[in-house]
Amino acid sequence: MIIAGFGFRSGANLAGFQDALAQARALDPVPPAPGAMACLVLKRSQLELDAIADALQLPIIWLDQADVLGLPVISHSVASLAAYGTPSVAEACALAAAGVGGQLLGPRVVSGDKMVTCALARAADHVRTSQTPGAEAPQTGA
């Protein structure tokens, strides 16, 4: 399964998410279709993410900040590192949701309006399936 990890600023909108996702998919000669999107739960109240996920036709995997700490990302944002403890929220969310053995398909991309970042990761064995903030995320076969 392909996971689309997202980072975003408050005020981001559906068009920004669509643009960032399209750019991330375009990095591959055969654009992979994601099966889920992953975001930090602490940012849930900033946008109508459930409506955005519905429009993108993707379930949301909610991640705690601790889930993304220390993951090996490609991109480096000083602001992201200071605010969230990871140099790339989008890449770290994609990797964390992809589970053990997950691999980034490329670096994060930034929407044209500079409000949304997106990175794609392929799950190797397990993918997180929790969609409830604060709930423990069980591991299931992909």
Give structural attributes:
disordered C terminus, globular, two-stranded antiparallel sheet, Nucleotidyltransferase, domain 5, alpha/beta, 5 helices, 8 strands
Short characterization:
Helix content is 30%, strand content 23%. It is an alpha/beta fold.
Overview of the molecule:
With 142 residues, this protein is an alpha/beta fold. It has a single domain (2-141), classed as CobE/GbiG C-terminal domain (Nucleotidyltransferase, domain 5, 2-Layer Sandwich), CATH 3.30.420.180. The chain is built from 5 helices and 8 strands, in the order E-H-E-H-E-H-H-H-E-E-E-E-E. The protein has helices at residues 14-26, 49-56, 65-68, 78-84, 89-98, and strands at 2-8, 36-40, 60-63, 103-104, 109-110, 116-122, 126-128, 139-141. The strands form 2 sheets. Strands 1, 2, 3, 4, 5 and 6 form a 6-stranded mixed β-sheet that branches. The chain has a two-stranded antiparallel sheet with strand order 7-8. Strand 5 (109-110) and strand 6 form a beta hairpin. The longest helix is centred in the first third of the chain and has 13 residues, at 14-26. The protein is globular. The termini are close together. Residues 131-142 have low confidence and may be disordered.
